[in-house]
Structure formats: C-alpha cells, structure tokens
Specification:
Layout (H helix, E strand, L loop, with lengths): L26 H29 L13 H8 L1 H31 L6 H9 L6 H11 L8 H13 L16 E3 L5 E3 L9 E5 L23 E7 L23 E6 L2 E7 L5 E4 L7 E4 L19 H26 L3 H9 L4 H12 L1 H16 L3 H6 L11 H10 L5 H33 L1
Parallel strand pairs: 3-4
Antiparallel strand pairs: 1-2, 2-8, 4-7, 5-6, 5-8
Amino acid sequence: MTSATAPPPAAGKRPAAGTRGVLGTRPWIAACFLLPALALLGALVVYPIGYSLYRSLFDASGDGFVGADNYQEVFTDDRIRTALRNNVVWVVVAPAVATALGLIFAVLTERVRWGTAFKLVVFMPMAISMLAAGIIFRLVYEQNPDRGVANAVWVGIHDTFAAPAPYPGARPRPNGDLTASDGGSYTTRGAVRAGTAVALPLVAVKPEDVGGAKEAIPARDVAGKVTGTVWMDFTRGGGGTAGKIDAGEKALAGVTVEAVKDGRAVASATTAGDGTFTLPPAADGARLRLPAANFAAAYNGVDWLGPTLVTPSIIGAYIWMWAGFAMVLIAAGLAGVPRELLEAARVDGANEWQVFRRVTVPLLAPVLAVVVVTLMINVLKIFDLVYIIAPGSSLDNANVLALQLYQSSFGTNVNQGVGSAIAVLLLLLVLPVVVVNVRRIRREKEGRR
C-alpha cells in the first residue's frame, strides 16, 4: 500500500478560505477569544484616557471650551507647582535609596545563615497596605516623645549629650524680689550682702520634678559669704506664707545661681539637696541671677511632619515598605550570577569592594534597572501615604500630583477640567519610563535569541 503526499502550494497562492492560520487556529476564533480582553482594555484604559484628554479642554462646569487654559493653570498654580516639584524629589530620591538599600541587604545577607530570616523581616512591610503603613508612621512621627517613636529616640539621644533643665516652666512669684531679665532668666531687684541669707522662692514647678525632693530649710548667715535657699513656695492644701519657708515645702536642688556685677557673672553656685547655696565673698554687692537654663522647656524633638521635613519623612515611610521588594528581586538576580566570575576576580587580586563594584553590580545591572523603573512608576502614582501621614497644616507642603488630582477633581474647589489636565500630565510623565522599560525588555529578548 502506498501513500501519497500532497504537493506544496504554488508560490504566491493564497490559502483557501476557512483554512487555519500560522497559530493553528482560524482568525475569527482567535478574534473571539481576544474580544473580551480588548473590550476590557478599551473600557478601563483607552476610554478613560480619551475622556480625560477631552475633559481637560473644558472648564469646571464641563460646558465651556477653554482649550489649553487648564494646562496653563497646572504650571502657574502654586499648589500644583509644589506638587510637581515634590514629584521630582520622589522620583529622584525614593527609587534610588530603596534600590541601594535592597542591593546592600541582598549582598550582605547572601553568606550568613540567618540571611533568610533577615530578608523575611525586611520584606514583611510589603504585606501591609499603604493605608496601614500611613497610620503607623503617622504615630511614629508624632511630635510628643511619649507617643512618637522617632522623637522618643531622638530626645533620648539629645538628652544623653545635653542635660535637660531641672525645672522647666518654673517662675518666681509676682511682685517678688526676683524679676524677669533678658533671655528668660530671673534676677533680684537689689544687690545682696555677705553675711545675710537670701530667699529665692519659685512657683509653677511640676510635681514630677520635685517628687522625691527634701524639705527646704532656711540658709544660715555666714560671715563674708552670700548664702540663700531656692525652694518651691507652695504648700499642699493651701495656707502658708508667701516668700517664707513653711513646713513641708520642697527644696529645689540643682539650680544654678549666679552673682552678677555690671552684667558679668563673678561667681556661681548650685543648690544642694536641701535647696541651700553658698557664694564666695566676690558675690558681695552683686545681684543674684537664676539663668534661663534652669527653666528652659524640655527638648521636644524634631517636627518631622512640619513644612520642612514632611516630604523626606514620608519618603522614609515609603522606603521602609519597598526596600524589601527591591531586596528580593536583587537577591534573585544575585543567585544567578556565575560564581566563577567572582572567584576569578578574587584570584586576580581584587578585594571585596572591587569585586562588588566592578563585577557584581555590572552583572546585576538588568535587575537593578527593573527595580528602579518599577519604583519610578510607582512613586509617580503615590497618593495614600501622603494623604494619611501629612497633617492638614503641612499637606500643601507635601503635595504630589496624584493627591492634587484628587483634590482638584473631588475636593472643596472642584474643577475636573484642571483635574483631567493633571491626569494627562501624569500620563505624559509615566510614558517615557514605560517606553524605556519596553525597549529594555525587547533588547533582552533579542539577546537571548
């Protein structure tokens, strides 16, 4: 039994209708399968882009054609210009820092046994939503050191090197011998004489500052020296005599007392545990001054969410979330780096820094490009972190384009024409990054062929 094979079709002859295409499927069947995806793409991507472009040419009501006036407002309005400037800062700083940290974490944890556990901890913030992360960092950046972690650490470091004032907020009694002088200090009205004890009563002392203090005692007269007592002139439950030491009134220890002549301190002393102090004979005829350092307000940390630092603070929260993402991708790329090249570089005499800079980083360049491009696209759309973390007083200073788009379209002064113009601007800013990413992917595919 013989079998015959069909002769090949003549050159230039079209296949008959109904025949299968190159993919083994009739074209109309392939079109039916693609139709739902194309419909969704048109409804969710093409139509919104087209309508935003159309709407950006009309005024707030949507009836009056204004042409490019909305785009002119985008580049002249102070809030939008601030948002554009902040977006530039985001695009330059956040992807670079997150990628650098991811690279450092990936390389340093490659050879340690607990590297997997460390990577898990660093990657865990990715499991938290932007909303939850914003709430967390709003509390972290709280101004009050008793509530905000950042300021609690910062105040602890500050107080380690600079001792806080012993009695912040304390002051003398009105119409007493002590009067306010320059810089927040208090000075006696008249000069003091050696051999005569001086009374320096203070009020408005916080109870926690004198919790374990001793009871104040009157200073003794010492010939040739100036003595005195500094105490809290307040009796629990009322009573007592103003300006005199009553039973149960607390001594103020650690207060600096200076003797001043002609505006210059000639002697100084610090009160003891019972509130008394003794100045040398040079203090005779001087006025006594309690420096402002005794009463300065406690250091309250840094205003992380103030107008100056609000954007860097929010970028820090973003890096906390996305450094783990960069680390995981870079670690995956690092696992594919040929170890022979690294060992060859070490054999040639390169140290670890040279191996990292001249071998590891160039080999990881495609992965680093993926991470940077992905984060750049992501930060151009940043919205929720800024909206949640920045307080109302600093929101304009932390403004970004996505947030301004929301405020212009759905805020108090609604102008969806301007909002649509901002949306078109965001699209134009994202397109170059997308084009670069597509070209990179095509080059990689061609290189693998």
